[in-house]
Input
Amino acid sequence: MKYALVTGGSRGIGRAICIELARSGFPVIINYKTNQEAAEETLSAVESLGVCGELLRFDVRNKDEVESALDGWESSHPDDYVSVLVNNAGIRRDNVLFMMSDEEWSEVLSTSLDSFFYITRRILKHMMPRKRGGHIINIASLSGVKGMQGQTNYSAAKAGLIGATKALALEVAPRGVTVNAVAPGFIATDMTKDLPVDELKGLIPLGRFGTAEEVASLVSFLASEKANYITGEVININGGLYT
Ligand code: NDP
Output
C-alpha cells in the first residue's frame, strides 16, 4: 500500500492534512512530538473515514529518533511504502534578532530544516527505486517568502525550505517525484492563537485568517495525480496578503 506520512499531524494544519489525505484514500502515518492525546484525536478522525492510520512518535529534529521510528515502520510494513511526504512540523520562537537566544535560532531552524533533511532523505529511498514516484510537500510560510519582522529565525528557516524544495525538485524529477512548497499566511491554529487577530485581519484583503482545512485542500491536490506536472513550485495561500 502507498502511505502518506505527515509530520506534526497531531494538531492544526497537520491534523487537517491527515484527515484530507485520508479522505482521498491514503492510509496515513501521523507523526507528533509530545501531544499523544491530540495525535489520538487525529487518528480517530482518520479512522472514522474508514481509512487506516498509525501514530509514529518522533522528534523531527533528532536524527536517531527519525531513523529508528522509520526503521521500525519499514520492518513492520515490508510490502508498503510512503508515496506522499508532508514536511509540516514547525515552531515559532519570535524575537528581534539582537535579543534572540541561541536556542530560539537553532530550535526554529532545526525543526524546519534538519527535519526536512533527515526525513526526506530517508523517504526518498522508498520513492526512487524503479521510478515508483511520489509527492513531497513542504509547509513553508509567507514569512519565508517576504520576511516578517520579529521572525528572522522563522523567515530564514522557511526561506531555506523553499530553496531546498526548488533544488530537490530538479534532482528527483527524472524519478517521477514532485517536490512543492505551500506558503500559508495567517491560519487559525494553536501557533497563531496569541496574535492580535482583529488587528491583523485588517491587513488581509480577504478580511480573515485562513483555516487549516483550506491549507489541507491545497496539500491534498498537490499529493494527487492531478498535480503530477507541478514541481518546484511555491504556492501561496494567504487571503491576498502578499502575491
Ligand atoms: P501548531 O503549533 O498548531 O502544530 C504544530 C505541530 O507540529 C504539532 O502537531 C506538533 O506536535 C508538531 N511538532 C512541533 N515540533 C515538532 C517536533 N520537533 N517533532 C515532531 N512534531 C513536532 O502549528 P500549525 O498547524 O499552525 O503549523 C503547521 C505548519 O504550518 C508549521 O510548519 C508552521 O510553521 C506552518 N505555518 C503555519 C502558519 C499559521 O498561521 N498557523 C502560517 C504559515 C506556516 P505536538 O502536538 O506533539 O506538539
